[in-house]
Design brief:
The chain is of the alpha+beta class and about 90 residues long. The chain has one domain. It contains 3 helices and 5 strands, in the order H-E-E-H-E-H-E-E. The chain has a 5-stranded antiparallel sheet. A hairpin with a 3-residue loop joins strand 1 and strand 2. About 10% of the residues are buried.
Length: about 90
Amino acid sequence: MNKTQERIMADENHVQHMFLLVESSDVVCVLNIAGHPYRLRELIFMMVENGCRVKQTTPDDFNTFDHDKETVEVHDFLTSIIKAKFV
């Protein structure tokens, strides 16, 4: 890690934002997530460990995703808007 990345990771108030496409056996989701980079890494690792395919996507893909259900979740250091389409 370079010095800038080290400062970002050490700053407990830093917020990173990203869009993810997540596929499992029964659902396809697009997530609009924001939180500390460690929390985002932890979340992505947990999804992969549970058998999901995870890929970074774009705001346009999030906005045009055809979904069955939308939820908002707020946890410590992590906020997500989840659009889900059930297979």
